[in-house]
Amino acid sequence: MNPAAPLSSPDIVPDLLERSRALVTPALRLAVDRLAPPMDTVAAYHFGWIDAEGQPSEGDSGKAVRPALALLSAEAAGADPAVGVPGAVAVELVHNFSLLHDDLMDGDEQRRHRDTVWKVHGPSQAILVGDALFGLASEIILEGTDANAVRAARRLAVASRKLIDGQAQDIAFEHREQVTVDECLAMEANKTGALLACAASIGAVLGGADDRTADALESYGRHLGLAFQAVDDLLGVWGDPNSTGKLTWSDLRQRKKSLPVVAAMAAEGPAARRLTALLTADAKKSQQEFEDFDEGEFAARAELIEEAGGRRWTADEARRQYDIAVGALADVPLPGPTRNELVALADFVVVRSK
């Protein structure tokens, strides 16, 4: 799914993400080891460190975009990237808290090409481990004893609250016949943008940056999050299951009012009207009736979304949010290499294929 051509060399991104994993993963493992059994084991499974039988695994643990942002954020403040490690760990813990709960609420059985925690260990463990990771995030960030740690913890708390607000909005939208584009963007700014905004600024705060610098980086992260979510929404309808690790038409199966759907319904023309009629009728069906749909019915809805312009609008929105994100970096002086890596990471988010 390539809504835009890359604007910088992508070659530096794999190295950047690998460096981030090398710095952050050991600290993240130490943090998870604090959890009481069996939560430590369940969390290790979720992170891909062990398989369902408890054996060491090289499973996919995610792209490490948020940790990379936290470390680059520290460098943006002129600090050593290691200064951003507690922030990177804390943000990863909050992010994975949300994934554990989201998978259960959405009924998703697959994440990163394997069974989700609730499917393997049960709903209770998914809830408890998610709660434990959420609490652990504050513990990690507040182990710093200076004023910067308190400033960072405050930003993390606000971002966490907004993330939860966004998830609540997302669920509420599934039961509404109509959602506006502005409402959808506001939900996604909370659900995805808030935590990426925190990741992009928390390292700088820990490194002693002033609020002007931290706020500019936060703006970069927020709009990057909106670009990220727009691409994710495209993948949720048209993504290749071999790449996404989810079922075909995954967002349509869950009746999500994602950006392509909302933009298509807001358009004019026969395709938009037919789509609206179909989705309005879908909302009145039981979940069992909906699950009995064959692939052709989901494919027909996806075709109408594209015909009504929802796919193109969302791709254009991803690029627009990218432009705003990169523009925010011009508001503060940054070391040249750090600026280049932040731009390259934004390119990676907007052109990612999975």
Features:
mainly alpha, two-stranded antiparallel ribbon, 17 helices, 354 residues, globular, Farnesyl Diphosphate Synthase, disordered N terminus
Question: Any chance you could write out the topology, listing elements then pairs?
Answer:
Elements (H helix, E strand, L loop, with lengths): L11 H21 L6 H8 L18 H12 L8 H22 L3 E2 L2 E2 L1 H5 L1 H19 L5 H28 L6 H26 L4 H28 L2 H4 L5 H4 L5 H8 L3 H14 L3 H5 L3 H13 L2 H19 L7 H16 L3
Antiparallel strand pairs: 1-2
State which percent range the strand residues make up.
under 5%
Overall body shape: globular
Structural domains: how many:
1
- CATH topology-level fold name: Farnesyl Diphosphate Synthase
Q: What are the low-pLDDT stretches, counting only 5+ consecutive residues below 50?
A: 1-7
Order of helices and strands: HHHHEEHHHHHHHHHHHHH
The CATH class is identified as: Mainly Alpha
End-to-end distance: 8 Å
Q: What is the count of β-strands?
A: 2
Instruction: Summarize the amount of helix as a percent range.
Output: over 70%
Main structural class: mainly alpha
Plain-language structure description:
The chain has 354 residues and is mostly helical. It has one domain (12-346): Farnesyl Diphosphate Synthase (Orthogonal Bundle). The chain is 71% helix and 1% strand. The chain contains 17 helices and 2 strands. The protein has helices at residues 12-32, 39-46, 65-76, 85-106, 117-121, 123-141, 147-174, 181-206, 211-238, 241-244, 250-253, 259-266, 270-283, 287-291, 295-307, 310-328, 336-351, and strands at 110-111, 114-115. A two-stranded antiparallel ribbon has the order 1-2. Strand 1 (110-111) and strand 2 (114-115) form a beta hairpin. The protein is globular and about 60 Å long. The protein starts with 11 loop residues before the first helix and ends with a helix. Mean pLDDT is 91; it is low at 1-7.
